[in-house]
Amino acid sequence: MNKIAYILLILFVLTGLFADFIANDRPVICKDNTGYHYPILSNNFNRGKDCKVVLNPIIRYSANSIDKLNAGAISPFGFQKLKTNQQRHFLGTDHLGRDVLAGLIHGTKIALKIGTFSMFLAFVFGLLMSLYPTYYGDTGFRTKISSLVLTLLSVFIFIYFIYYRESIFSVLKQNDFSILLVVVGLIIFLVVFWVLLSKIPLLRKPVSLPLDSFFTTIIKLFQSLPGTFVVLVMISLFKKPSIYNIIIVITFLKWPIIARYIRAEMLRIKQERFIEASKALGLSDNIVIWRHALPHVLTAVIVALSFGFAGTILLESTLSFLGIGLPVDHVSWGSILSEARADFSAWWLAIFPGFAIFLTILLFNYIGNLISKKIG
Questions:
Q1: Would 283 disulfide with which of 10, 79, 287, 303, CB 3.0-4.6 Å?
Q2: Which domains does the chain have, with CATH numbers?
Q3: Is the pTM of this model over 0.90?
Q4: What is the pLDDT of residues 62-99, one digit of tens each?
């Protein structure tokens, strides 16, 4: 059973990576008098009559290829009007005449892309928000008041420039030299401001920052937000639907979960004797955290990432089913599934994408359980 799970995982990844080579309406390789050409790698390639096909994709339909002769949701076992040398629609078509199998293959690509990038960003953001604060606790990190004031001022200036960048650049009339002067002037201002602050005796005293309590409160605050409400609000803020918008939304929802896993593991690991020995040897905090603590943290976080990947695929499919988030020309498992609502007799539009979603979620949950058992 374990081997089957890993084989299915490899097939899922390979299908997502090479979706364009598996299902496409353009040949992989064709040859004419000038040599070999690769139409599949170019959207602007105009295949001439003399360009003889050397290699075709396995499925000779792309996700958006419309077969007008087989529009109206044709069953995989029904009669299909096919031209000479035209490939049959093995899993049928949707109401527009798009091949369902090609849509499932390209839906795998979308699921892999959204799941990988969103969980990677959630992991990085969760790592930054929990690793150092948990290690230092509420009393371990000390800094001068002047440095703290300078940091807060720098963050405020950065946020201000990001928020009002269009109006600021319009005032500067997109002059590169004037923008450079502003940046240099800000740097000089911050340096002079820091020097003046450092001369004040009161501001030179070190203080302990309660990093762990502060960031734990932020994590709890974000995790307490209702997921459905957050998704609908964030989707409505984006002007144009995009796959990257979905990645941002899922990252926003998933990073607190990853951060809590990292915090829990870091609380356990920092009490271990090898961490105390590393500190006793005089190693810097960065070396202790990244070289000694992080590898042990990752072993447990991998389980959370595996379960999170399954949840990501389910969320993306749900959004596509509701018709929000992704552009109209992006075919995904959820968008194919939503086609079944228009015609309940088109069972293939519900069975095949539904089984793909079910199998993928089951696969990643099973692999997550395998990893957790090995770690435990």
A1: 287
A2: 1-23+58-141+210-376 (1.10.3720.10), 142-208 (no CATH)
A3: no
A4: 888 888 888 888 888 888 888 888 889 999 998 888 99
